[in-house]
Amino acid sequence: MQQDYVYKLVGCGRTFFVARNSGLYRTDDGGRTWQNAYPSLNLSEPLPTLTVAIAPDFEHDPRIFAGLSGGIFRSLNGGQTWENIPLPPPPPVISALELSPNFEQDGIVFVATLEDGVLFSADRGHRFGAWNFGLLDLNILCLAISPDFARDETVFVGTQSGVFRSTNGGRAWREVDLPAGYEAVLSLALSPDFAHDGNLLAGTETQGLLLSTDAGESWQRLGADIFTEAINAIHLAPNFSARPEILALHAGTLLHSTDRGESWTLWRESILADKEVTAILAPHGFDASALALVGLANGNVLPLD
Fold first, then answer.
1. Are 141 and 135 spatial neighbours (Cβ–Cβ below 8 Å)?
2. CB count, 10 Å around CB of 239?
3. SS3 for the chain, per residue?
4. Do 186 and 205 touch, CB atoms closer than 8 A?
5. In the sheet that 140-145 helps form, which strands lie side by side, from edge to edge?
6. The whole model's pTM is what?
7. Please, what is the average pLDDT of the chain?
8. Looking at residue 305, what is its pLDDT?
9. Is the predicted pLDDT of residue 3 greater than 70, yes or no?
10. 256 forms bridges with which residues in the sheet?
């Protein structure tokens, strides 16, 4: 594979997609081999793809959204063909894409942009509009949707100056007070049982990793003596309430906690010691026997199982 930067990994079963500086790639064998996902576009040069999202029920709805610098491509057939989705001008830089956990029923797509705030679609991505009421910072770096979105309509975005929360499906936003004050928030993660435990984590640029156990009302800093640089991604165990494991991407290194952030160790140190990690996907948890994909700054993707 061409040497470049891995931005995002998503997948279902043993089919995964990786958004890279050279485009979008697909594997159907758990990451052993990869193929260009844009062959029908007949591109003469690489198409940098900054993020990617797939339908939650991808096996039955092989819908893909690819975020670019200037727009969104959508495929309804697993990447065999693509269409360019019309977006409000000017052409936005897409920083994150997330589909509602209840996408099969509600068809909702949230899009984060740099400088243009949040774009929203309720018709499976056919049309998007800006949903920025109350959003005081339009530089959106990440977003996270409540696993119980169908009931609580809760969405969080991390911006250049902090965190904003919507409790009405993105129609209005309110700033969340952080102990770090105005601080760039690069990553967000909600507990799979967020509706009951209220656990929310925010990875900042310079103020480390923050944990809220009450849906963002109050915060505590985790690993203050460890996290001194940017935290670009946070992943929680699928059964976080019973097994509170956290994986944090800190300055190119993956750190693992099994006790809700009280202590940390390097994750898969023997394999990743000399590598700069830029993305991680571990849908079945962090045990050595569970399949995980690790994206690197040089463009490679390592399958770990």
1. no
2. 12
3. CCCCCEEEEEEECCEEEEEECCEEEEECCCCCCCEECCHHHCCCCCCCEEEEEECCCCCCCCCEEEEEECEEEEECCCCCCCEEECCCCCCCEEEEEEECCCHHHHCCEEEEEECCCEEEECCCCCCCEECCCCCCCCEEEEEEECCCHHHHCCEEEEECCEEEEECCCCCCCEEECCCCCCCCEEEEEECCCHHHHCCEEEEECCCCEEEECCCCCCCEEECCCCCCCCEEEEEECCCCCCCCCEEEEECCEEEEECCCCCCCEECCHHHHCCCCEEEEECCCCCCCCCCEEEEECCCCEEEEC
4. yes
5. 140-145, 155-159, 162-166, 174-176
6. 0.96
7. 96
8. 81
9. no
10. 247, 265
**Alpha-carbon span 153 to 33, nearest angstrom:** 38
Q: How far is CA 3 from CA 20, 23, 293, 300, in A?
A: 10, 12, 17, 7
Give me the pLDDT at residue 1, please: 45
User: What CATH number does domain 6-304 carry, 2.60.40.10, 2.130.10.10, 3.40.50.720, 1.10.10.10?
Assistant: 2.130.10.10
Sequence-separated (6 or more) residues with CB below 8 Å from residue 263: 257
CA–CA dist 190, 199 (Å, integer): 6
Handedness of CA 33, 287, 65, 123 (dihedral sign): positive
Give Cβ neighbours of residue 164 (< 8 Å, ≥ 6 apart).
Answer: 134, 135, 136, 137, 156, 157, 173, 174, 175, 176
Please answer whether residues 296 and 26 qualify as being in contact, where contact means their C-beta atoms are separated by less than 8 angstroms: no
Contact, 117 vs 123, CB < 8 A?
no
Residue owning tokens 């001008």: 89
Instruction: Say whether pLDDT at 208 is over 50.
Output: yes
Please, are residues 25 and 18 in contact by the beta-carbon 8 Å criterion? yes
Check if the beta carbon of residue 108 is closer than 8 Å to that of residue 169. Answer: yes
